[in-house]
Amino acid sequence: MDFECLVVGAGPAGLSAALTLGRARRSVLVLDSGKPRNYAAREMHGVLGHDGLPPAELRARGVEEVGRYGIEVRPAEVGEARAIEGGVEVDGITARTLILATGMLDATPDVEGFDAIYGISAHTCPYCDGWEHADQRLAVLAGPEAAEHMGPLLRQWSSDVIVFSPGLEADIGVPVVREPITRFVSTDCRLTSIELDGRDPIERDALFFNIAMHPRSALAIQLGCTLTEAGFVESAAADRQTTVDRVYAVGNCADPMLNVPMSIADGARAAVFVNVRLVGEGIVQPV
Question: Considering the domain boundaries, does residue 287 fall inside one?
């Protein structure tokens, strides 16, 4: 085998897994497409010791840190993966184990003016960005099911919350606007108002949205991993192994609810179980 573990994805989960394995003297290669979920975010919050750090800086630090243990983070758009005798093969590279940390993508509104505010005054996670917009005029854009959760939740950060959800019929205790949004108006990337079809604009300062989440699970499908109904990779809670032997899934490709610190922990957890497995197989020679 070329490596003891291949990690696909150099986000918080993947780099955390690589770091833990590197410190366990395992031979590891990380393959990364360079397309992180939080590419639009200027800062990340709620990460102990790194509150307010740009996501790109966390990644750069992570790449440098795993490099201290001889781990390469190689730019690659992985195309093929398959299970082989005693391991896995990914684009011709073989390893005894594989950790999928491929993440997911957030569907964004196809509305004029959105790109200007994304990552600055338009966000997906109130735990990550709610504090910066506390007591402001907040908008929630989501489908009915997500809106029923997000609308009341955002009231923890502001008493002035309006939900924009054309299909929502339930009374959720928060004002609901059902007319379609036609434009986000902003100044210096800061949302100022939302224009609607057939209704006067509504002044808002920030937007939190949840339209759809698309897991990057193509490799998992190739490998034959079982997916959840929503398309995420099914992995065991204890060790994060998928339904395919020697293949593990961590971070947002397996659980859309994980933020950065949760993903870091998820990657480290899987790495510990990978190392324990390799030791159990008698593979204890240091790299």
Answer: no
Let me know if residue 93 belongs to a domain. Answer: yes
Asked whether the beta carbons of 219 and 206 are under 8 A apart, the reply is: no
β-pairing verdict for 122-123 and 206-210: parallel
**Identity at 107, one-letter amino acid code:** A
**3-class DSSP assignment, residue 192:** strand
Strands 104-106 and 176-177 come out as unpaired
Q: Are residues 221 and 205 in the same domain?
A: no
Q: What angle do CA 237, 104, 117 make, to 5 degrees?
A: 130
Tell how strand 206-210 and strand 138-142 pair up: parallel
> Residue 216: is its pLDDT beyond 90?
no
Residues of the domain holding 172: 108-210
Which pLDDT does position 217 carry in this prediction? 79
Per-residue exposure over 249-276, b if at least 16 CB sit within 10 Å of its own CB, e if not: bbbbbbbbebbbbbbbebbbbbbbbbbe
Contacts (Cβ under 8 Å, ≥6 apart) of 104: 37, 213, 214, 215, 216, 232, 252, 253, 256
Average pLDDT over residues 174-198: 96
95 has which bridge partners? Answer: 3, 88
Closest by CA to 10, choosing from 62, 80, 71, 70, is 62
- Same structural domain for residues 192 and 255? no
pTM above 0.85, yes or no: yes
Give me the helix-helix angle, 260-280 and 12-23, nearest 10°. Answer: 40
